[in-house]
Design goal:
The protein is α+β, with helices and mostly antiparallel strands. It is 37% helix and 19% strand. The chain has a three-stranded antiparallel sheet. One of its GO terms (molecular function) is RNA binding.
């Protein structure tokens, strides 16, 4: 099943209200944000298109320079993105290889 359409309705994911009811919200370090999304969030739109999600990044003025990340989209797509973010942010080379 394509993460961008519902198997039952074949409608684009952004037209289905259930994809917006429970946004995934978490924080990531500023350096991890740049690693994933690129300098100035260059890759943000590309990641959204390929993951079938909408991602909002909000810089928080904290001592550690964290960014609040809000993701909406199909549940499976949000879970895949969270896993990818964790793997990219991991210092464990095994996760990077996956």
């Amino acid at each position: 099943m394509d993460m961008g359409t519902s198997a039952l309705s074949k409608k684009p994911w952004w037209t289905l209200p259930q994809n917006f009811h429970a946004p995934m919200v978490f924080h990531m370090e500023e350096d991890q944000e740049e690693l994933i999304f690129g300098h100035g969030d260059t890759y943000l739109r590309c990641i959204e298109v390929h993951s079938h999600t909408l991602i909002q990044l909000e810089s928080w003025f904290t001592a550690t320079g964290q960014t609040r990340v809000t993701v909406v989209g199909p549940h499976r797509a949000r879970q895949w993105l969270l896993h990818m973010f964790c793997c990219v942010g991991s210092q464990d080379s095994y996760h990077h290889a996956r």
